[in-house]
Amino acid sequence: HLDAVAHTLARFHAQHRLGTPSPWSPEEWLDRLHRPVQDNVAVTTGRVDENHAAWERLGRRAREFAERHAAAFEARRLAGRAVDGHGDVHLQHVWFETNRAAPILIDCLEFRDDLRQIDAAAEVAFLAMDLAYRRRARLAARFLRTYAAEADDFDLYRVVDYYVSYRAAV
Question: How many CA atoms lie within 13 Å of 166's alpha carbon, on the beta-carbon side?
Fold first, then answer.
């Protein structure tokens, strides 16, 4: 089933690429990738009673990662890896009508371009994170491997951990 999801997402992303290079300047691209992470950290830090320092540390580490790996993110922009995607692909949003049916991805974020027009690696990271969270790390690795092969996107491994940590914080 996960292989089918990976194939479906790869085909969907191929049909919904936003251009090569992606249509933003390098600075706009980095801001698009990092702003949701920082917004999530800020909102969560303001809502939790404890662990403010941990959330602030997460925000700082995410910012540092984005800065250290700016060349990898820029390479993805130049390669046209931005997609008008689903924006919210995790296990709850994957549906199979029958055991042999193609997967249906439900409940996309059509109302928020900034959360849907993203790096394809951010999209697949959500499902990989959800699998890892449910103690299915091997399935998460298989899903990413299958997607990378189908989409010819092995460079996603340079940035996917950034997106996995963001999706875990969400």
Answer: 28
